[in-house]
Design brief:
This protein is α/β, with parallel strands linked by helices. It folds into 2 domains: 212 residues, 3-Layer(aba) Sandwich (Aminopeptidase), CATH 3.40.630; 103 residues, no CATH class. It is built from 9 helices and 17 strands.
Length: 331
């Protein structure tokens, strides 16, 4: 299995006929593809950093099927095609492809990140867009790693909701900190046909822009902490009707982006809180006791929070996190 990115000048023959599950057989691994358009500099678009999040790739296929030449040149990064072949977020033993772009990661994924960064140094970019599906029921929203006017303007083109994140700081968007405006789009849940529509509409508008818009009225949230299940903890959700040391309350996924007051029941645990949950702030400090308390076995919120990206997919919970807690930043 190679993670050295293949470089293409133009669309490889037959590529647009491939669903995400077939890309590995055509590309062999991750790929950088430059497609010349009527205007420079190029728009950078990344898809499939998580192999099962296919809406971005499907949208790009539709975009490239439109009339040529494109209104603007495009640089396309196709990420974890090996995981896509199996329809999973990432393969066992792999690093998350959206957690490899800074820090102390070693191995093939770190080499991939180095290769992509090196190649991009020779390319002039107009803006950068990273396309994802949600791992839970959320309104569609954008994620910002910077709050400058250009990044906020890109977010405004997509949705009236945006989340500013400082951690994890190893996401692909960080590559563009000193390069161009960048936005990550959370298109919606896997399998929702509207995800592709949202992505095609956004990318088409980006390709037609002559300048990156600035500002825009958006409801902005800041992530404060990530909520993790402690490794090795057996857990379930109440709707599963399965007994476990930690049983999480059902329905939280439905209130993503809505405030939950202090005292809200988050679950039930037969073990001490520190053995089942871990809450980390943006400095990676353990702040579990600031957010949760255990009362007669019930896990309750110690303070009001706004959850986001809460997921009931056990594999995603263990590979990434259960959810984020945010606070409003206004508009």
């Amino acid at each position: 299995m190679t993670l050295t990115p293949s470089i293409f000048d133009g669309i490889p023959a037959g590529l647009l006929d491939c669903p995400a599950t077939e890309l590995a057989s055509v590309l062999g691994g991750p790929a950088l593809i430059r497609i010349r358009g009527a205007r420079e500099p190029a728009l950078f678009v990344s898809v499939l950093l998580h192999g099962n999040e296919v809406s971005g790739w499907n949208a790009v296929r539709r975009l490239l099927d439109m009339a040529q030449p494109l209104p603007r040149s495009l640089v396309l990064f196709i990420g974890n095609v090996h995981a896509a072949a199996r329809g999973v977020r990432m393969l066992p033993g792999q690093h998350d492809f959206n957690r490899i772009w800074r820090g102390e990661v070693i191995g093939p994924e770190a080499a991939l990140a180095d290769d992509v960064r090196s190649w991009l140094r020779g390319v002039s970019l107009f803006a950068a867009v990273d396309l994802h599906n949600n791992t839970g029921h959320n309104p569609h929203y954008s994620v910002l790693t910077r709050l400058d006017a250009g990044c906020r303007g890109l977010a405004y083109l997509f949705s009236d909701k945006a989340v500013y994140v400082e951690e994890p700081d190893t996401v692909l968007a960080r590559v563009f900190d000193d390069v161009c405006p960048v936005v990550t789009l959370e298109l919606g849940p896997i399998g929702d046909p509207m995800c592709e529509e949202r992505a095609v509409d956004f990318l088409t508008r980006c390709m037609m822009l002559t300048v990156v818009p600035v500002g825009g009225e958006i409801s902005l949230f800041r992530t404060r902490v990530r909520v993790h299940i402690q490794p090795g903890t057996d857990f379930s959700f109440a709707d599963d009707r399965r007994e476990a040391p930690l049983v999480l309350t059902s329905g939280v996924e439905g209130v993503n982006f809505h405030a939950l007051p202090a005292g809200t029941r988050f679950g039930h645990s037969t073990r001490p809180l520190a053995e089942v949950l871990r809450v980390l702030d943006v400095a990676h400090r353990d702040v579990t006791d600031e957010y949760f308390e255990l009362r007669n076995g019930d896990v309750e919120l110690r303070r009001a929070v706004v959850p986001a990206m809460y997921t009931t997919d056990p594999l995603v919970v263990m590979q990434d996190c259960l959810c984020y807690f945010m606070e409003p930043m206004g508009r």
